[in-house]
Amino acid sequence: MGAGLMASGWLMNHPMTLVMRDGVSYDLGFPRSDYLQDANSSGYTVIQSRDSLRERAGRYIFVRPSIEKRTLKTTPQRVNFQSVEHQATYWLEGRSSTYELIPASHTSIRLSTAQADASISGSSTWHIHTQHLLEQITAPDLAIRDNLLTIGSIQIHLPDSNDPTLPLETVEVAVSSGNRYRINALFEVIGLCAVDARAYLSIPAIVQDIHAHEQRDQLETRNVPVRNIRLRDGATGSISYNTDTRAWSSESAPPRSVPAEHLIIVKE
């Protein structure tokens, strides 16, 4: 007897309704799929069909998603979206300070700096954290195009980088591993700017990953700061790795290089 084909059913994360400008609305369902053909053809399959749209009875008012604006403080501030019910695009207006953002999955956030503050103190600095998310965020999950930064399911709308009257916001994203990436909206470049040593099994593994980023032109700086690492003798000071000299250095002794065997990863 031959084994039968078994496939799990479709599952949507969220129900979705599309309302058109003329008032006609549709429930978005699953596309029809030929399971046998899918089994015989490996890889991804793209299905383009209107069968996923199920028209609803009646006419409905087309409403644009609302924008909820929040003007932040002139001092460092933490903004947490985890416990909020998300029914709008959030517009965060900075005041030329540093802000720690804790977004939720599937949120849409717009960032800018108040013009009065920007003209005096420059743009704001935004640190976007993702370690708390259920979805794992890695470097390939980051993308910047046409001033839209995508972080997995999260959308971050940045000011027009081609407008000379608008300051360029400083944006860093901490992915699930703790590594940080600097976002350059003007040149649409994303570069590793800091490493969290706790995500690695050894010092050589850190070095290997830094050079892998270098080969992919994904380094923000040649002197990469490394967090949660210290000297075995307990000396204090930040530690970094330089890709040009291929050497470690410590803030406590900048003129000399630090042997890798003198370093230890701090896991706690």
Structure explained in plain terms:
By secondary structure, this protein is mostly beta strands. It has a domain at 196-268. It contains three helices and 21 strands. The chain has helices at residues 35-40, 115-121, 203-215, and strands spanning 17-19, 25-28, 53-55, 66-71, 77-80, 88-94, 98-102, 108-113, 125-129, 142-145, 148-151, 154-157, 170-174, 180-184, 189-196, 223-227, 229-231, 239-242, 247-250, 253-258, 263-265. The strands form four sheets. It has a ten-stranded mixed β-sheet, covered by helices on one side. It has a six-stranded mixed β-sheet with strand order 4-6-8-12-11-10. A three-stranded antiparallel β-sheet has the order 1-2-3, with no helix packed on it. β19 (247-250) and β20 form a beta hairpin. The longest helix has 13 residues, at 203-215. It is globular, with a radius of gyration of 24 Å.
Task: Give structural attributes.
268 residues; mainly beta; 10-stranded mixed sheet; 6-stranded mixed sheet; globular
Quick overview:
With 268 residues, this protein is mainly beta. 10% of the residues lie in helices and 37% in strands. It is built from three helices and 21 strands.
